[in-house]
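Sorry to interrupt, but I need a hand with the structure work. Can you supply me with one protein entry, sequence and fold together? No commentary is needed, just the two lines. Leave the record below and I will have a look.
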Amino acid sequence: MKKTMLLFAAVMGMMLSVQAQQNPTLIIHNADIITLDDAQPQAQAIAIANDRIIAVGNNADILRLKTTNTKVISANGRTIIPGLYDSHLHVIRAGRFYNTELRWDGVKSLKRALQMLKEQAERTPKGQWVRVVGGWNEYQFEEKRLPTLEEINAATGNTPAFILYLYAHAYLNKAGIEALHIDEQTPNPAGGLIQKNAEGQPTGLLVAEPNAYILYSTLAKLPELTPAEKVIPPSAL
């Protein structure tokens, strides 16, 4: 066991020696570093050379790599994690419409989702819409099914509502159909379908056939919030 520990120490020493030759441009120490490396899940310090990590370890070992040109920062015990990348964000829309969007992420039952829809409709100012813009699917619900247009209409009443399901289709309630002046004469846009019943009246289902233009072009028609309506109250933070 002692020989194994000595060998490990020697290998680590060699690694640090090689890394030291790269002359770190930045060292961050006194940190709680989450490495995501099973062999060394946490560390105290990190050495970086020209935007590349060259060593991770305890404070003493990493600080030994410092040169006169190394910038040294103490994290004062703060946590450092690997960078997180999200390749698909809607930060502009989220910021503009935060106060009108209802999120169903993680909601476990359709019954609860519809109750949330009802609550959102009741607090939505006149002239504005309820919007559920993605982030959910039927498999998260205990019922393992999608909402019906009848259920959506019952929950939202006279408040216009737009509910997007993946890139496949969207639901407009009756108030939404009226607000957008969609009727039996409204033609299908290229690549999309406005579902109509046997009498030729729009049901409220918008279908991507085959692209999502109909879904996002409809969403783009919904009214903008006023500057005052965009302000998030401190109680919501």
